[in-house]
């Protein structure tokens, strides 16, 4: 069964850090472009970071630039999202998603992603 599973969410104080992990089963993440998205209550899903290992692309979204970093995970077949200097407005459910590595459309086009995880809650208290 092909699936993505996120982990690492939780409650953290403003200014703190968290590391989210996205683990794949049934396929190899290195063969896909991976993005992290987030969705806060009442808001649209927002892309926060993108990695395409075959094309050598890693980039955070402008809204989290300098605070979030996406990278290949320490564990096998994982991609991590390292979040620092967290703010209350970072509170959301965070999802990882995978799409064809050769797709050249916008990084955060949600319709282009084939696999999605179930999400992990991140809550930042003030």
Structure, explained:
It is a single chain. The chain has 126 residues and is mainly beta. It is built from no helices and eleven strands. The protein has strands at 3-7, 10-13, 18-25, 32-39, 46-52, 57-60, 68-72, 78-83, 92-100, 115-116, 120-125. Strands 2, 4, 5, 6, 9, 10 and 11 form a seven-stranded mixed beta sheet that branches. It is globular and about 40 Å long. The model has no long low-confidence stretch (mean pLDDT 94).
Summarize the structure.
This protein has strands spanning 3-7, 10-13, 18-25, 32-39, 46-52, 57-60, 68-72, 78-83, 92-100, 115-116, 120-125. The chain is 0% helix and 51% strand. It starts with a strand and ends with a strand.
SSE series: EEEEEEEEEEE
- Give the number of DSSP strands: 11
β-sheet strand percentage: over 45%
Structure annotation, total helices: 0
What is the overall pLDDT average?
94
- Measured as a percent range, the helix fraction is under 10%
Assembly classification: single chain
| Rg from Cα | 13 Å
Q: What key attributes describe this structure?
A:
single chain, 126 residues, 11 strands, mainly beta, 4-stranded antiparallel sheet, 7-stranded mixed sheet
List the helices and strands and how they pair.
Elements lengths: L2 E5 L2 E4 L4 E8 L6 E8 L6 E7 L4 E4 L7 E5 L5 E6 L8 E9 L14 E2 L3 E6 L1
Parallel strand pairs: 2-11
Antiparallel strand pairs: 1-3, 3-8, 4-5, 4-9, 5-6, 7-8, 9-10, 9-11
């Amino acid at each position: 069964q092909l699936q993505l599973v996120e982990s690492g969410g939780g409650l953290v104080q403003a200014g703190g850090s968290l590391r989210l992990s996205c683990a794949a089963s049934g396929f190899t993440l290195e063969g896909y472009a991976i993005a992290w998205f987030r969705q806060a209550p009442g808001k649209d899903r927002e892309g926060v970071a993108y990695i395409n290992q075959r094309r050598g692309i890693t980039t955070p979204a402008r809204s989290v630039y300098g605070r979030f970093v996406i990278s290949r995970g320490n564990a096998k077949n994982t991609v991590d999202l390292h979040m620092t200097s967290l703010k209350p407005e970072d509170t959301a459910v965070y999802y990882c998603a995978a799409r064809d590595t050769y797709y050249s459309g916008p990084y955060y086009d949600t319709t282009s992603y084939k696999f999605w995880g179930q999400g992990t809650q991140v809550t930042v208290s003030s």
